[in-house]
Amino acid sequence: MPRPRKNRWVNWEPGASYFKPQGIPLRDLGEINLTVDELEAVRLAHLEGLYQEQAAQQMNISRQTFGRILESAHRKIAQALVNGDALRIEGGSYALPEAIFYCRECDYNWEVSPGFPRPPDCPQCGSGYVNSMLDRCGGRGRRRRGRRGHRGWGGPPR
Prior knowledge:
Helices cover 28% and strands 21% of the residues. The protein is an alpha/beta fold and 158 residues long. α1 runs antiparallel to α2, α1 packs across α3 and α2 crosses α3.
């Protein structure tokens, strides 16, 4: 039995769900499904210019998994361009990361919509000691892996 698929963190959802050649009705085209996590991998690698290790940390997956996702996305995009097919963007195993922040001074917690920047000050006490809840519980990319897989969380940043 295969292992359950882990959700990949996606920092935005695409505004368009189809891309197709101009002048040809959609009903006359073949259709290729590009998942949201594959599109996020292309965005991080090619638009943001991140190395695979950095991009994998942002998506909360291993570098090898990121490489496989990116390769699959490249194959699908190339197939759509060469064959003149439509790209449908939907589905995949993804989740928006929680945007919950806390103040280290007064321990106040609050939510910020995904995609918005880290708040500079606490809305409760005005302190500048603001952290993400991801930082509090080990956060993205802080897992340490040994030879036999998962070895525990690295803990909060120092």
